[in-house]
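hey so u asked for the seq, here:
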Amino acid sequence: MFLKLGTTSFGGPAAHMALMEDEVVRRRRWLSREEFLDLLGATQLIPGPNSTELAIYIGQRRAGWAGLVVAGVCFMLRGVLIVMVIAWAYVRFGSLPRLQGVLYGVKPIIIAVVAQALWGLGRTAVKTPLLALVGLSGAALNIMGVNELVVLFGTGLLLAANRAGKGTTPCVLPVLGMASGLPLAAGVAAGAVAAVPVSLWAVFCFFLKVGAVLFGSGYVLLAFLRADLVERWHWLSESQLLDAIAVGQMTPGPLFTTATFIGYVLGGPAAATLATLGIFLPAFIFVALSGPLIPRLRDSLVAGAFLDGVNVASLALMAVVSWRLGLATLVDWWSLFLAWAAVWLLLRHRVNSAWLVLGGAAAGLAITSLRGG
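ran it, structure tokens below
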């Protein structure tokens, strides 16, 4: 399943999570919506690639330690291999292959898949008027520019404090205090790297640091990479960095496969392999350490209230990302038609989202060919 998702999951973390919800909740019924939401919320509380961590959490919940490894590796494997091939062509020929047609057809499908997932998960997560109000407030704050972590932790702490104020033992507060300190620790670690020459060990250590401390969206990843690789060490040019981010966005699987591309540009297949290992390894460690705690947190009323808040805030952030992607994607009649058709097929006929993504890619290539693009 995760090999398939790693091949068809275009569109960023929100889209990846929606595709996973379609597979493991609606189609296979491996998890309930409540369990899925708890895992989704947990990915927001630890650094690293959120969609990959969700895959690892699902694998751990489904099949223990073996499932943890298999799910994570399979979800990112095909994306890594595709990026490796593109990086080889980039180094050899100095340009990127044209993938605009594929993206033109895939993005409207992703909008439809995310909207369907948000509708289903929202009905489960928004259990009270207070949660609805908090979710809307979180979306509004994020639109106004408030950082994702502030929205997530602020929402969770607000609801946990509200629950604790009703006389419940605040047993989760030490855990929340540690979690709230993670962004500060990330900032300290990010500034602690001295300039070093390019080497395999240096490439591995840099991407290991990024994977261990990075919270937030792909734009945060861009800021991390630019600060060190372009401005401080001059390992890459601005153009090369933007090409690397574009490859991560245009290929299926997690955006963190950008590290594979950069590693190849810096040192060929060996550096690409080490960069990939470095940026993804912390995700496996964080999930392995935190996974067993999630059911215990849910058993505590205060911790459960915190998770409820984080879950609602996570969906609010997904909605904001999807709205912005929709404004940039649904720009003509063809894209609107593809999105409408995908919604109809999902709701009326429960078509597998993977087939919809592949169909959208074919349609996008056909439409752009007819236009001469």
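Residues 167-193 have pLDDT under 50 and may be disordered. Residues 2-100+107-183+288-330 form one domain.
lmk if thats what u needed
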